[in-house]
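Attaching the record inline, Q. Sequence:
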Amino acid sequence: MMTEATPGTSTDASVRLPAEQIPIGVERKIGSHTVTEDEVLAFGRDWDPQYFHVDAAAAEESDFGGLIASGIHTLAVFQRLSVETVLSGFDIIAGKQLRSVRFLRPVRPGDTLTGSMRVEEMSPPKNGRAVGVSSGTLVNQHGKQVLDVTVDFVARAQG
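Structure, as predicted:
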């Protein structure tokens, strides 16, 4: 029995879309995530222990006027949302390069981040692989963009 692959829903490698079938230029919604204070503090302690990520009282005196999420935390939110909803349906081998990452405004505890992504291009397959370029954004609950990212990735090709 054959099943049709739906990007973002498969954990079965046999139904992940190969490079030649990855939709180009289609903007996909990737869902939302609400950032909690506990999450900001935990990520900051583990991965980016700058005072404005790990100490709410000290962060009040910072240029940000309060606790903010690490930019790497914000990028990780984008990655998780994009994998769960879109990329898990493609036969991705690996990320290749972060072409551009822009943190456009602080992410604060309680912010709900909503994202979208689009595969911009795919190179012609060579040796069973193709390189793709994807772009994505996250906006907060006020519709203000907080992240803009462009990534190169490698996908398995059919031939």
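The domain at 17-156 is CATH 3.10.129.10 (Thiol Ester Dehydrase; Chain A). Confidence is low (pLDDT under 50) at residues 1-8.

More tomorrow.
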